[in-house]
Write a structure and sequence with these properties.
4-stranded antiparallel beta sheet, 13 strands, 322 residues, globular, single chain, mainly beta, 5% helix
Length: 322
């Protein structure tokens, strides 16, 4: 060839040598600058034609194209099957295969297949089957069967007995003190105890008379002094219209249940009472249940009021213990 031709060809050869004849890092691939994605052909940091720091088809910290760093086969660290530890299967630990940055296949980062991170199958974290945490079957915490805490069966307190139906009871005696203690006896089924007298109490409308202006009514009742023919309590109520310097009225020493066998039973507690006026001594109310006929109550007076003085007593045989 003429020397001139050789001279003209030299620059062309040099240019060809400079191009090198090898594939660029963009061969069969989209550029990383195009949307921040790379194809499976392999850019730096991916399997295929490896760059320095990589051996064969393995990325540093990766084994095969399907394994991410810290993963072996389809199993992620601390997980088996299709669970994510980061991610398994087509998931990257950076990425592998045809995944876009931060994505693996059709799965979004932090997910593997249809299973979300922290979940396995259809079971949500902290739950097993249809059983919610802290519960077993249909039994709620702190309960067993249909029984509520603090209850066992239908057990309750012992029933009360109407005073007039106490076995062997014949009569009831009220001990009232006006000057001296007097006893007033009434049959169990007599008219006095079986009704409450209407107001106002007075001469001809009373069961017991103290002084000439002191009148009392006695009857079966509830614990609050309300009339109840089948009540488990006994009540005495009355009027005494005299204030200081007179002493207070309703001076009850005791009430006794009188049995056919000759025995007596005194009241065991004061269920309720009403003390009124300037000469009442409420602190002495327990004297009507102390078993001593030499002590008595002082419940006051009814000056300026339509209310009655009152004492309502319970008995062990009828109302039980207080």
């Amino acid at each position: 060839m003429p020397s001139a031709a050789i001279t003209r060809s030299l620059p062309l050869c040099l240019a060809l040598l400079a191009c090198g004849g090898g594939s660029s890092s963009d061969d069969s691939a989209t550029n990383e600058g195009a949307g921040g994605q790379k194809s499976a052909g392999g850019a730096a940091g991916q399997a295929g034609n490896a760059t320095g720091g990589k051996a064969g088809a393995s990325n540093a910290g990766q084994a095969g194209a399907a394994a991410s760093a810290g993963q072996a086969g389809a199993t992620s660290a601390g997980q088996a099957g299709a669970s994510s530890a980061g991610q398994a299967g087509a998931s990257s630990a950076g990425q592998a295969g045809a995944s876009s940055a931060g994505q693996a296949g059709a799965s979004s980062a932090g997910q593997a297949g249809a299973t979300s991170a922290g979940q396995a199958g259809a079971t949500s974290a902290g739950q097993a089957g249809a059983t919610s945490a802290g519960q077993a079957g249909a039994t709620s915490a702190g309960q067993a069967g249909a029984s509520s805490a603090g209850q066992a069966g239908a057990a309750g307190s012992a029933p009360q007995v109407p005073v007039r139906k106490i076995p062997g009871l014949e009569s009831i005696t009220f001990y009232e003190t006006t000057g001296a203690t007097q006893s007033y006896k009434f049959l169990v089924n007599g008219p006095e105890l079986s009704k409450k007298l209407p107001d106002p109490l007075g001469a001809g409308n009373q069961d017991i008379t103290g002084t000439s202006i002191e009148f009392y009514d006695v009857y079966y009742s509830d614990k609050d002094g309300g009339f109840d023919v089948d009540g488990a309590y006994l009540t005495i109520s009355g009027v005494f219209p005299a204030a200081l310097p007179a002493g207070g009225g309703l001076n009850l020493a005791e009430i006794s249940l009188d049995y056919a066998a000759g025995s007596q039973e005194f009241g065991n507690y004061v269920a309720s009472f009403v003390a009124l006026g300037d000469n009442a001594v409420p602190a002495d109310v327990s004297r009507c249940i102390d078993g001593d006929l030499g002590t008595w109550t002082t419940m006051g007076n009814t000056v300026g009021t339509a209310s009655r003085l009152r004492l309502t007593l319970g008995f062990l045989s009828s109302s039980g213990k207080p």
